[in-house]
Amino acid sequence: MQYITYQNMETLLGFRDVIKGAFQAMQTELNHATGITEEDIIESMALKHTVPSDTLTHSPGTVSDKTANTAIGYRKRLENENIALITELTKELMSLKLIIDKLEIGLNSLSETQKSIIDARYFQKLDWYTALDKLAADKMFLSKYQAQNLRREAIEKLMQITRITVAQYETIMRLIN
Predict the structure, then answer these.
(1) Contact in structure between 22 and 96 (CB atoms under 8 Å)
(2) What's the farthest any 2 CA atoms get from each other in the chain?
(3) What is the mean pLDDT of residues 86-100?
(4) Which 3 state secondary structure label does DSSP give 138?
(5) Residues of the domain holding 141
(6) DSSP three-state, residue 165
(7) Residues 67 and 127: beta-carbon distance below 8 Å
(8) How far apart are CA 155 and CA 152, in angstroms?
(9) Does residue 99 fall inside a structural domain?
(10) Are the beta carbons of 74 and 45 closer than 8 angstroms?
C-alpha cells in the first residue's frame, strides 16, 4: 500500500476546512435525498406526464392502464435513481469523514507548539513572520528555523499516524475540486 507524501499532507492540511465544508454539504444533500416523500414522487410524475395538447385522449377523471403503467415505471425509475444517489453520497461521505477523522486524530497527537505552528501556517495561512509573531504573543518564542523544524516533525508525525493512502488522497481531491 502506498501512502501520501509530505507535500500531499501539506495539501490536505491546507484544504482541511474545505474538506469539512464538503462533508457538511454532502450530508445536507443526503438528508434531502432520503427525505423525498411519496407525495413528491407523485407530484413530479404528474408534472412530467402532462399532455401538452388541447385534445383529450380519454375522459377526465379516468386513468388508463397505459397511464398507470407509465406512472409505475416512472416511480420505479425514480426510486432506483434515488437509491443510486444515496449510495454514491454515502460512499463519498464515508471517504470525507475518514480523512477528517484521521487528520483530527493526527493533530491531537501533536504537541501544543506543533499544533500552533500547523494552525498558523495551514489553517490561518499566515506567512512565517506573522506566524512567529502570533506564537510569540502566545509565549512561544521560536526562530524561523526552529518553527520550520517543528513543522517538518509535525507533518512527518501526521503522515505516520494518519496512514492516508494515495487512493484515499486522490478520492478526496476529486471530491473537493
Answers:
(1) yes
(2) 86
(3) 92
(4) coil
(5) 6-50+66-176
(6) strand
(7) no
(8) 5
(9) yes
(10) yes
Its pTM surpasses 0.90: no
Sign of CA dihedral 105, 109, 11, 9: negative
In tens, the pLDDT along 8-57 reads: 999 999 999 999 999 999 888 888 877 765 566 556 555 554 444 444 44
Torsion over CA: 146, 152, 156, 157 (sign): positive
Number of compact structural domains in the chain? 1
Examine residue 56 and state whether it is found in any structural domain, yes or no: no
Helix (H, G, I), strand (E, B) or coil at 65: helix
Contact 115, 147 (CB under 8 A): no
Nine cell digits for residue 6: 509530505
- Which residues, 6 or more positions from 104, have their beta carbon under 8 angstroms from its beta carbon? none
45-80 pLDDT, tens digit each = 555 544 444 444 455 555 567 777 777 777 777 777
Question: Dihedral of the CA atoms 107, 108, 109, 113 (nearest 10)?
Answer: 70
Residue 32, H or E segment: helix 16-34
Amino acid identity for residue 105 in this structure: I
Whether 61 maps to a domain, the answer reads no
**CA distance readout (Å), 51 to 48, 56, 93, 103, 125:** 9, 8, 40, 55, 57
